[in-house]
Amino acid sequence: MSKRPHTILVVGATGSVGRFVVAEALKQGYATRALVRNLDKAKTLPEGALAVVGDLTDAATLDVLPRDVVNAG
Predict the structure, then answer these.
(1) How far apart are CA 69 and CA 16, in angstroms?
(2) Which long-range contacts (CB under 8 A, 24 or more apart) does 11-17 make?
């Protein structure tokens, strides 16, 4: 498997769907950032995921988001 050059951000990474998205992104070789509100819950993320603490409902917390994330749109 080749390393993909892109970094992705998974919102809701510790949720019931997000945790599977994180695992699959890592499996496919993406550098994966996981947006979490609670750093304690980030302990359940797969190895290789980088937790980023923030809350989409609080703009002041979003300055920590990585700038190298690609738009998956």
Answers:
(1) 22
(2) 11/35, 11/56, 13/42, 13/45, 13/49, 13/51, 14/38, 14/41, 14/42, 14/44, 14/45
Backbone angles phi, psi at 16, to 5 degrees: -65, -30
**Taking CA 17 as the corner, what is the angle to CA 64 and CA 37, rounded to the nearest 5 degrees?**
30
- pLDDT per residue over 35-55, tens digit each? 999 999 999 999 999 999 999
Nearest to 67 by CA among 13, 6, 11, 26: 6
Q: Are strands 50-53 and 7-11 parallel, antiparallel or unpaired?
A: unpaired
Give the predicted TM-score (pTM) of the model.
Answer: 0.80
CA dist 73 and 71 (Å) reads 5
For residue 17, what are its two tokens?
């769907």
